[in-house]
């Protein structure tokens, strides 16, 4: 699903991620490093912070 997003959806969306690496790249790293359960939790937490109302950019 992440590969589909990066290949098909991300190129047509405006650049809006507050973080480096981007949230989708971070998610791929989290899934590879921590597995599905913890990777999903970390990805959800990251996405909650990556919005206009979130706090200042903090790299993980």
What key phrases describe this protein's structure?
60 residues; mainly alpha; single chain
Mean pLDDT: 79
Counted by DSSP, the helix tally is: 2
**What distance lies between the first and last C-alpha atoms, to the nearest angstrom?**
23 Å
Radius of gyration: 12 Å
Largest sheet: none
Class based on secondary structure composition and strand pairing: mainly alpha
TL;DR?
It holds the Pfam family YidD. Helices cover 58% and strands 0% of the residues.
Describe this structure in words.
The chain is mostly helical and 60 residues long. It has a domain at 15-50. It has two helices and no strands. It has helices at 2-9, 23-49. It is globular and about 30 Å long. InterPro entries: Membr_insert_effic_factor_YidD (IPR002696). This is Membrane protein insertion efficiency factor YidD. Pfam families: YidD.
Q: What is the secondary structure topology, with strand pairs?
A:
Blueprint: H1 2-9, H2 23-49
